[in-house]
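Work Package 3 (structural annotation) set out to generate three-dimensional models for the target panel prioritized at the project kickoff. During this period the team completed the workflow that converts sequence records into discrete structure tokens, so that structures can be stored uniformly alongside our sequence database. As a representative example, we reproduce one entry of 98 residues exactly as it appears in the project archive.
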Amino acid sequence: MNERTFTSDISRFGNIIRPDNIIINPNSVTFKKRNKNLFNFDEKTIRINNIASVEVNASILGTSIIIKSYGGDEIIGRKFNITDAKEIKKLIDNYQSK
């Protein structure tokens, strides 16, 4: 299965111990982050066909990605570089159009 993983950017002051990870495959988008205990991960998954919108908010300190679903769930990834954020949006748009 074609799967891509994107990690928040340390050079954009992203958390080095608990980075945000967005994993995209043709069926779903998963947000994964090490929890506060540092032993486990918190994870949220939204199916591609349930995604209502993808927002990319760029700033000097990093780019936020907000992925909203029709059911009201959302994934918010922070401190990504702009290139990765645009690639995430493009991949989701491409998978939704198939």
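The radius of gyration is 13 Å.
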